[in-house]
Every structure is written in C-alpha cells, then in structure tokens.
Amino acid sequence: MRSPVLPLTWHLVRSSGRRGLQSRLLAAGAAAVGTFVLLVMVAAALGSGARADRTAWRTPEPAKHGTAVQALATTYIRHEPVTVVSLAQLPGRRGTPAPPGLTTFPGKGEVYVSPALAALLHKLPANQLADRLPKVSSYGTIGAAGLASPDELVAVVGRAPTGPAVSEEAGGSTAYDIDQAARAEINGFSGTHASVFTAYDQQTALVGVALLVMPVVVLAAASGRLGAARREQQLAALRLAGATPRQIIGMTALETATLGAAGALTGAALYAGLLPLLADIPYGIGGWYVRQLWVGLPWLATVVVAVTGLITLSAVSMLRQVATSPLGVAQQADPRRTRIIRLVLFVAVLLYLWSSTGGGQLSTRQVIGLLLLFYGAFWLFGPWVVDRLGRLVGRFARRPATLLAGRRLSDDPRGAWRTVSGLVLAGFAAGFFAVSTVGMDGPDHRDQVAVAGGHAAEVRTLLRDAGVTATVDTVGEDDDWDGLLNGTPGVIAHISGGGPARLDTAVTALTAGNPARPPLTQDYATAGDRTAIGRFAEVSTATLALSFLVATASAGLTAAAGVLDRRRIYGLLRLAGTPLKVLDRARVRETVIPLVALAGGTTAVGVYLSYRLNKAFGASINVTGALELAMCVAVGALAMFAAIGGSRPLLRRVTQDAARSAD
Question: What is the phi/psi pair of residue 58, to 5°?
Fold first, then answer.
C-alpha cells in the first residue's frame, strides 16, 4: 500500500496559505545564514592552519648531509615584519631543490621578493628599506606557493657560502632571536616549524569558532521550530483522525528537511560566491588566497547535512506531545513545564568548570571543550530560569501587559528562551573578550636600535653617514637584562626625532653594516607577545560582531514566527477588547525580563573566565574594557529590540481581522 506521508505533506504545504509560506521562507533563510556563518568559521580555522604550513619552509631544518646553508632573519619596516631567507649552495655538493615559490635555487646575488614587498620597495626611499637587501638590477618574484598571504613581506636572497649573512653568527644570540633568526645546513625545504607570525592563528581562530558555534546552533534550532504552533495543530488533527505517530514524524521530517536542505544549499552557494570578497578580509599577516578559504566538498557537504539535520531534529523533537496527547495539543491545554534536573545539571557543570580552571594553564583543546560544555549546560538551564521568572512575574504583575508576558513565559519557556538565547550566549563572548588583555606590559624600547656585539664607534659612523641623530651607549654582558639586548653585549642607539621614518633609516644603515646580525628594535623584542595579543584582539572583534549579528537574526526570526504562531491567541485577545498596544508591550516585556536576568549572568561568567585566563598569563584585567563591554551589551540589546520591533507591522496585520485570525 502506498504511504500517505508524501501526498499529505504536499497537501499541508499547499493549503498553508501566505502565512505558512512566510514561515517557510524565514526557516530557509535562517538555514542559509547558519550554513554561511558555519562555513566561514570552518574556512578560517582550516585556512589559518594552511597558512601556517606555508611558512614552515623558512625555518631551516638541519640535515646530516647538507647541500646548502639557509639563514632566517627578520627585520621590520613601519612596524611590519619582513622575513629574509638567505640561501647559499655549498660547493662540491649535489644541487639543492628550489624553495617553495621559486622555480630554481637562487644563485649568488639574486634577490626574490613577494609582490607586497616589491610594491613597498618601490614606494619607500632606498635608505629606509631597499638598502637592507643586495643591490640588483631587478627583483625576482616569489610565487604564491612560498607565501602564506598576498600581503606578506618576504625576501629570498642568494648568497656566497662564505658570506656573513649565512655564517655561524647569523643564527642569533639574544633571547629575542628565537623563531626570528636561525641558521643551519639543509638539503631541502621540508621544515615543520611555522613562523612566529602564523603559529598562533589556528589556535586563536578555533577559540572564536567554539564561541560562535552555539549561537549558530540556536539560530538553526529556531528555524526548525518556525510555524511550530500551526504545525502542531494540523498534525494533532491528523493524529485524532487516525494518523500514526510514525506518519506524523515522517511528514514533519520530510517538510523541514526539504526546507533546511534548500536553505543550507543557498548558504553554501552564497559562501562559494563570496569567497573572493572574504579573502580580502585581513587576519594576522594579511588577506588570504582564495583557495585557502575553500573548505572542499567534504566539509561543504558535512556542514549542509549538519544544518539540515539540526533543523529537522529541532522540528521533530517538538512532536512528542502531538504523538502522545493530540487532544491536549488541539485544545492548547498543556503548559510546557520544565524540570528541576536542569538546575542540577547546570550546577554540576559549573562546579566542574570551577575545578578545571583552578589548576595550571589549559591547552587550546581543553579551553574549547570547556566553552562548549558551558554553552550546552546553559542551553539546558535557560528554559528553567525562564519558567520560574514567568511564574514570579505572573504572581506579582500589576499591569495587563506584564501579566500577559508572565503567562507567556511560564506557558512556553522554551519558546521564550529561544528568542533571547542568542544574545544571552553572545553576552558571554562579550564578557570574555571585552576585558581580556592576554599579555604582559614589557619595558619600553621605542626609538631604540640595538646591535648585538657591535662597536659604538662603528655604529656612530653608520648613523652619521645616514643622517640620523642618535645617542649611542655600550652595554656590557650583565648591564641590563631588561634592556633591548636582554643581557647580551652590544650597542644601543637612542634615535632623536623623526618618527618611524627616521627609525627605519637607522635600521637600514645598521643592517648594511652587519648583514649577519640585523639590528633589534621594539618590534623585534615584542614580536611573540604582540602577535598573540593581536590575533586574540582580531578574533575578539570578529566573534563579537558575528555573535551579535547571529543573535539579532535569531531574535528577529523567532519574534516574527511567534506572531504567526500565536495569531489565533492574539485574535481572541483582540476580540476580548485587548488594545494592540498592550499586546505589543507584552511581547517586549516577554523578551526584556529573561534577557536582563540571563544575559547579566552569562556576561559575569565571561568576565570571570577572562580573569582566570589573564591570571594564567600573568596579566591584569583591562579596566577600559568595561566601557567596551557596556557598549557591546547595549548595542546588542538595541539590535535585538529593533529586530523584535520589526515584527510589529506583522502583529498589526494579523490582528486587523480579529474574527478571522481567531477562527
């Protein structure tokens, strides 16, 4: 016998009218947004790992039978790092393969530069940048295979085996040289040690992904429950007419899976079409190559299937009452209470988080796991709080709008929670990031240039010839461990006036004086900390923006769906004489009450975890971040109210003909 599921589903879809079509379009749109954001998040995580791998060849990997010498040096121009890789073929050894991005191994005197560095060499005066490299008639170009970003500043220089730039001295001698200077005999370019400027990218991106996953899940789950009230009424009637629970579940799964798949595929197509624009968004060392952000078909299919499955599961999970008590659903006589077990589980998770963060420093994987655990626990806990808030508000209400809001909160706490959950969870991200300063305040070495092992007279001569006014001091082995040389003997020049251009001129002059050991600056000494802090700040900004965007979309979507689902109730209230203004105020208070109670709690937890993270790094809380936090929460709340206010015309429209709406 032919199954009636497909024809019945198609009949219900066709007979749902314009309002049913609106709910379905909103559901498909939410699926598209969720898929797009998820794919962008996955692309950032995978792409940052691929970029780090692209930089590993620059750090020499020692070989037993080396065929060439490779030296890594790092210099800075306008506070941006310039990576210089010096290569020299050893005489009497077999040929060394070409480094990534080059077609042949560079000969003595050949200089290859990245496109971004080539543009900068032509833009700046030679005494600020070009004179740090050997003079050539023309520069070769490093291909994309040797670069992590089109904006990266990289040079590959061919040297003589006896040249100072590849000598033993080129390996560096100060504590700041780690990951910025190295030297070894090599026989290829199969290094595994990523550059200090890309090593933190993927770990930081993964933390941002973990913080964004739950708001996206909230959006997808909310889209699966759009039109839930109307669907429940229709399916309850079919159940009373003799439909089996399996048929009811099959009809719902078929409808929502089709809508979810259509929306998810639209989001995937949007992601693929916007890849060139996404690649222009800078992260860390700069923009992206488009192929770095392409996740590949397996990941694309996985995200599409995951979003579709989540939407379908969300819709089907609401059918338990329809299957077991269709008459109660048809009469709308069963308030959806929550159980105390939600509170017990939440307290247990908080105690576990407290004990887990009280020890030593956590790994990135552990941090991500704890964040996801907290999100999951709060997702279970939220409806219980909303239920209790609704009962309290209903008991002590003195105005009709407040009484209506309290009744709605207690009658459908899960639905009210879905409206505010996005911003509540985004508040956690805001609290976590806004007061974080992961790092330590180090000594100030601005306007200083240091030369390890240099001689004061030689440094004065080089700076004078370059037209740079400076005070030159000699530093002994144990003179100043907090200074720019960190206890290494050498010379420190204090540059007078001129700003960044004068400092770059001094660096160029001193580089030419000793190619084996490029001079040190504040940028060089703080590279590791600045890179970690910079990545954290960039991910903070992106996470806050996307989480509030997704939260606003989720709130607006749920508010519009709530109006469509409750049009019969609103119609009855209008027939009973309730003013439209009272209904609208009740909707707003239904959002404000749980939002104030819950968002404040998650924001406080975020601030606490940020404090623990700062403590682990030996840093202090960023006091000025409190203002940023207040602004984030205020903007997020205003955006949510604007999204809810956007459904006010819909409320007016569905209650214009109250008798028809209540039918």
Answer: -80, -25
Range 177-203 average pLDDT:
87
Do residues 617 and 439 touch, judged by C-beta distance below 8 A? Answer: yes
Task: pLDDT band for 140, please (50, 70, 90 cuts).
Answer: very high
Number of C-beta neighbours around residue 273 at 10 A: 10
Cα–Cα dist 248/235, whole Å = 6
Question: Hey, is 518 helix, strand or coil?
Answer: coil
Q: Are 130 and 103 in contact (CB under 8 A)?
A: no
Sign of CA dihedral 600, 602, 605, 609: negative
Q: Is 115 exposed, middle or buried (0-12, 13-18, 19+ CB in 10 A)?
A: middle
**C-alpha span between 74 and 517 (Å, rounded):** 10
Rg over CA atoms, the chain: 31
Q: What phi-psi label fits residue 93: left (phi over 0), alpha (psi between -120 and 50 degrees) or beta? A: beta
Single-letter amino acid, residue 103: T
Q: How far is CA 304 from CA 25, 217, 307, 547, 549, in A?
A: 17, 13, 5, 20, 21
| 574: nearest Cα among 635, 631, 651 | 651
Residue 491, SS3?
strand
Whether residue 207 contacts residue 371, with contact meaning beta carbons closer than 8 Å, is answered with yes
Question: How far is Cα 3 from Cα 189, in angstroms, rounded to an integer?
Answer: 63
pLDDT per residue as tens digits for the range 285-305: 899 999 999 999 999 999 999
Cβ(159)–Cβ(166) below 8 Å? yes
SS3 497: coil
What is the CB neighbour count within 10 angstroms for residue 97? Answer: 15
- In whole angstroms, give the CA distance from residue 245 to residue 238: 10
Give the C-alpha separation, 592 to 602, whole Å: 15
Contacts of 347 (CB under 8 A, 6+ apart): none
Q: Bridge-partner residues for 75, per DSSP?
A: 82
Angle subtended at Cα 520 by Cα 515 and Cα 523, rounded to the nearest 5 degrees: 130
Helix, strand and coil in the chain, % to nearest 5: 65, 10, 30
Whole-Å CA distances, 273 to 37, 279, 280, 516:
14, 11, 14, 47
State the first-to-last Cα distance of the chain, in angstroms, to the nearest integer. Answer: 36
Q: Degrees (nearest 5) of the Cα angle 601, 604, 610?
A: 145
Write the single-letter amino acid at 488.
T
Q: Record the tokens describing residue 289, joined without a space.
A: 């190559």
> Hey, how many other C-beta atoms are within 10 angstroms of the C-beta on 428?
26
Token look-up 């007078």 returns 496
Can you read off the two tokens belonging to residue 360? 């030593």
Comparing 322-331, 417-426, 448-457, which segment has the lowest mean pLDDT?
322-331
Provide the 10 A C-beta neighbour count for residue 166: 25
Question: What pLDDT does 385 receive?
Answer: 86
Give the H or E element holding residue 157: strand 154-158
Supply 234's token pair.
């229709």
Give ∠ CA 486-491-494 in degrees, rounded to 5: 95
pTM, 2 dp: 0.78
Per-residue pLDDT of 585-628, as tens digits, reads 888 888 778 877 777 777 777 777 666 666 655 555 555 555 66
What number is the average pLDDT over the span 475-497? 73
Q: What is the distance between the alpha carbons of residues 223 and 468, in angstroms, rounded to a whole number?
A: 65
